[in-house]
Design goal:
This protein is an alpha/beta fold. The chain folds into 2 domains: 2-172, 3-Layer(aba) Sandwich (Rossmann fold), CATH 3.40.50; 187-220 and 230-354, Dehydroquinate synthase-like - alpha domain (Dehydroquinate synthase-like, alpha domain, Up-down Bundle), CATH 1.20.1090.10. The chain has 13 helices and 11 strands. It has helices spanning 49-58, 77-90, 104-116, 130-136, 174-179, 181-191, 193-199, 209-229, 244-255, 263-280, 286-299, 310-317, 347-354; strands spanning 2-8, 13-20, 39-44, 64-68, 97-102, 122-127, 141-146, 149-156, 161-165, 330-335, 338-343. The termini are far apart. 47% of the residues are buried.
């Protein structure tokens, strides 16, 4: 079992990230659940019931289950209203706790529901996908989609802790498992070249449990250090947006198609586009751009999309929530393992880079 402590100095708050095999079985020894008046567990209908059962077996208090539809399309204000209504029905008050058990949608949406109910109650993240274990559950950004724009409504609110049980990955469909690696690879690209090289040495499902545990710990260390320095994303935290400016636009457009992309798949394409932008601006050497392309290909993650138009992607980019006065502040690379923030990019460069991936 590995334990990291995230310290948010600005809020004088710290919380643990606990990583290991079978951690859910020991969860009652990690937190004082007895101090809460009510406990609700938000989970998706696509999350295996065995993990809910393990929580029930491990926590000796009544757990009020709130099951919501899985998938990005349910990550909406309508679903949050249903969650709030359920909170009221079971008598949740300001001394209550919400446990979010599931993937990125559940961690984002459940955290948002808890953070806005009665002006905010405690929540604990128990992510069950690779993506959620290195991204959605860590860092205190919680929210929902709005008008087909990813994570457009949300708040910054830290959990009381994050419990990462590597065993939960054993029940994931391969596509869901593998797409989560896009976020892990991103950490290598913005912070550690050797880590990137290791991550792209084979396909995601070929890593064993020990390697997965080490990778989850490494990625959470990278992200935690960034969050500690800038938890409200005014500066260095923008690094973790690499691949997401284009990735979110592509993902949002795919929601409207009959072949929606998973988040990590869209981010993988976004990382390659933003790699090409970095190269075209002269920030990144061509051999490094080629190395990134080959690395992503080796993992089996997508580096192109079909049935989307460049003009539609650019239009969606103009709605990016990170824009200031209509200008996107891009996160790019000036080396494999080193990101740079607040880069200005002309539309013709973006269009040129998109031509490498839109087939």
């Amino acid at each position: 079992m590995k334990k990291l402590i995230v310290t948010i100095n600005e809020e004088k708050k710290e919380y643990p990230i606990i990583i290991g095999d079978g951690v859910i079985d020991a969860i009652d020894t990690l937190f004082d659940f007895g101090e809460y008046s009510k406990i609700a567990v938000i989970t998706g209908d696509n999350v295996p019931k065995r993990w809910v059962s393990k929580l029930r077996e491990s926590i000796p208090y009544e757990l009020n289950l709130i099951s919501v539809p899985g998938g990005e399309r349910s990550k909406s204000i309508d679903t949050v209203i249903k969650i709030w209504n359920r909170f009221q029905e079971v008598g949740m008050d300001r001394k209550s706790l919400v446990i979010n058990l599931g993937g990125g949608v559940i961690c984002d949406m459940g955290g948002f529901a808890a953070s806005t109910y009665l002006r905010g109650i405690d929540f604990l993240q128990v992510p069950t996908t690779v993506l959620a274990q290195v991204d959605a559950s860590v860092g205190g950004k919680v929210g929902i989609n709005f008008n087909n724009i990813k994570n457009y409504i949300g708040v910054f609110q830290q959990p009381i802790g994050v419990v990462i049980d590597v065993d939960t990955l054993s029940t994931l469909p391969r596509r869901v498992h593998d797409q989560g690696f896009a976020e892990i690879i991103k950490h290598g690209l913005i912070a550690d070249r050797s880590y990137f090289m290791f991550l792209t040495s084979k396909k995601p499902h070929e890593f064993n449990t020990s390697e997965l545990t080490q990778m989850l710990a490494k990625s959470n260390e990278i992200k935690s250090k960034i969050v500690e320095e800038d938890h409200r994303e005014k500066g260095v935290r923008k690094l973790v947006n690499f691949g997401h400016t284009v990735g979110h636009a592509i993902e949002s457009l795919s929601f409207e198609s009959d072949k929606p992309l998973l988040h990590g798949e869209a981010v993988s394409v976004g990382m390659y586009v933003e790699t090409k932008i970095s190269e075209m601006l002269g920030l990144l050497e061509k051999e490094d751009a080629d190395l990134i392309y080959e690395g992503l290909k080796k993992t089996g993650l997508p580096v192109s999309v079909t049935n989307l138009k460049i003009a539609d992607i650019i239009s969606k980019l103009k709605l990016d929530k990170k824009s200031v006065k209509g200008q996107i502040n891009w996160t790019l690379l000036d080396g494999v393992g080193h990101g740079v923030i607040d880069q200005k990019v002309d539309d013709d460069i973006v269009e040129g880079a998109l031509r490498f991936v839109v087939k």
